[in-house]
């Protein structure tokens, strides 16, 4: 076994025995020198399906199909960085097991390590999609995950570097407490804690690691962003003015109306007048007359002058003068119709003054959160631009080729 240009390779005279299921396949770990281009893996990992028969596959690249149809070598290397297996390995062949795809902050990133968390998504995509669409789906999945991996590596490295010695001790103590609490919840044993965490979808160490990452990112955000974000009283005033209508909603009035034809319905007009003067409920009269929607109109926004400061004709405003909730106008005419308006309800929502502490605090917190996010995004962008990592596009291309080889159908 050896490495070549960051690719972990194994002679097929060994791999073939494992992959073909021979009974004597060893499961002991095989030692690989620990450097940036190699790592230790087990023979069990070599048995993972990494080669597919292109003759029975849809969506394979034309390059793979061309080579598969020839009598040439069964593998190729692109500058000793990648290669595809075009048919099952035979004794004497050399096949790819893992590949170094790049470095982030000096730490090598291998294809296996990267692809494992998104393996289910890639396999599902391969089952549901074919041809060029599969390439696009694979590439989108890989690019999104790669951005997240690079971000996490850079941001967490930056966060750890920003800790003082005292803060490091505090973080260590906090993680010990998290670990001890998980042990307690696992009935006092590590195995119990691990079983409990697996039911929650995490390994114990993964869970503790996530808690560490949360604390580190929160610390970095405070250290890098807090001092850059200032909210002044003038900012609060502008924000209040911008959202004035939200804090001072308009008062509304809901009216009901009965409208009858003056000439054609004279007797009915007289009957309605008598019933209203007798104190009968206006809405009941409207219902008896089968007035549309029971006579109810859409609520009107009221201006400063109140019930007469609404968007209706002047003659209706005059009829409403002096009325309050529950009152009904006298009959009045518009054109050839006789009308009554009834004040069903008046709604005057509470106005929220800028001088109320809860309003000021709410505006200040909203502005601070918004500006903090803007500054954080800028910081992240600068970190991605200045971070020590290989070209993301090149890494994405390498991972895509390996993913297609492993999971493409």
Verbal overview:
The chain is an alpha+beta fold and 409 residues long. It has a domain at 250-347: Roll (Chitinase A, domain 3). The protein is 50% helix and 13% strand. It is built from 16 helices and ten strands. It has a four-stranded antiparallel beta sheet. It has a four-stranded antiparallel beta sheet with strand order 8-7-10-9. Strands 3-4 form a two-stranded antiparallel ribbon. A hairpin with a 2-residue loop joins strand 5 and strand 6 (107-110). The longest helix is centred in the middle third of the chain and has 31 residues, at 131-161. It is elongated.
Helix/strand order, N-terminal first: EEHEEHHEEHHHHHHHHEHHEHEEHH
CA radius of gyration: 37 Å
Task: Give the overall average pLDDT.
Answer: 76
Specify the structural class. alpha+beta
**Tell me, what's the shape?**
elongated
Order the strands across the largest sheet as they lie in space. 1-2-5-6
Name of the CATH architecture of the domain at 250-347: Roll
- E-strand count: 10
Main beta sheet strand tally, sense and closure: 4 strands, antiparallel
* Low-confidence regions: 1-89
What fraction, in percent, of the residue positions are helical?
A: 40-55%
The CATH topology of the domain at 250-347: Chitinase A, domain 3
Number of H- or I-type helical stretches: 16
Give me some keywords for this one:
409 residues; alpha+beta; Chitinase A, domain 3; four-stranded antiparallel β-sheet; 50% helix; disordered N terminus
